[in-house]
């Protein structure tokens, strides 16, 4: 499998979905088609697997390995692959990191350990990331959760992580407060060893990007990668009129994808791809359950409003 050794996480990075059969096994054929469809979009920097969007919490270690293997086969020669590190313990996180490197990943996205919801110290966070850094030299992306979850890292902790672990090269910033998000962008990208800020605030992506993020890493890229790539280019070119026009198309999808309950966002994205004729079914693994017909209808309306789905095609598919 191809590894892109000079890759530094930046730019437009979709987090792909993972299709399942009705018996909840991985639909490898549909996954391959989905990967090729995303990789064909102009202007992407990488893709992400084994993350929220691929329902990593419901996947075994063998399934995560297979997901990475398929991604490497389909797109690894064209795009860097970022592998999520989802683990509550540091030893398991290190094992996953070694497996990701062996599988051809070009970077890793480190999710915060769930026990941190009960409290954390800077020493705990450092121990976790050092265990991973000792296992691989792959560039790391810190997934920064909102501080209110208990899994977000305080500013002082982030500073120590960046100072002491040189393989950390980016942060996936899920900071919901605009002033704090802007402070991250200014401080981290202005460091002597810059830390790229990748927006994951997909519900207000234009606002986030105009603050100066050096990229975005988003599950909604599994549906609207082209719009996201064009928006990112427009913002970088200071073409506000074009950026606002593209944002007007993105907004209807953001409105339905990121509605309550938030946990259903990727569930909804699968339904969107079914409506667009790009997936055969929208199966999710428990504890997620299929969303209602009424919500699917709202997704259909949003896709039409965004100019992604023709009204006549939508009506025909609905009648079928």
Give a written overview of the molecule.
- It is a single chain.
- With 320 residues, the chain is an alpha/beta fold.
- It has a single domain (11-239), classed as TIM Barrel.
- The protein is 47% helix and 11% strand.
- The chain has helices at 28-39, 61-75, 90-102, 122-135, 155-164, 178-189, 205-210, 221-236, 240-257, 265-275, 293-305, 311-319; strands at 11-14, 47-49, 81-85, 107-110, 140-144, 168-173, 196-199, 215-218.
- The protein has an eight-stranded parallel beta sheet.
- Helix 4 (122-135) packs parallel to helix 5 and helix 8 (221-236) packs antiparallel against helix 9 (240-257).
- 46% of the residues are buried.
- The model has no long low-confidence stretch (mean pLDDT 96).
Going by CATH, the homologous superfamily would be: Aldolase class I
Radius of gyration: 19 Å
Number of distinct helices: 12
Low-confidence regions: none
Report the sheet with the most strands, covering strand number, pairing sense and barrel closure.
8 strands, parallel
Mean pLDDT: 96
Reported CATH architecture: Alpha-Beta Barrel
Identify the strand order in the major beta sheet: 1-8-7-6-5-4-3-2
What order do the SSEs take from the amino end to the carboxyl end, as H and E? EHEHEHEHEHEHEHEHHHHH
Secondary structure tally: strands: 8
Structural class: alpha/beta
What proportion of the residues form beta strands (DSSP E)?
5-15%
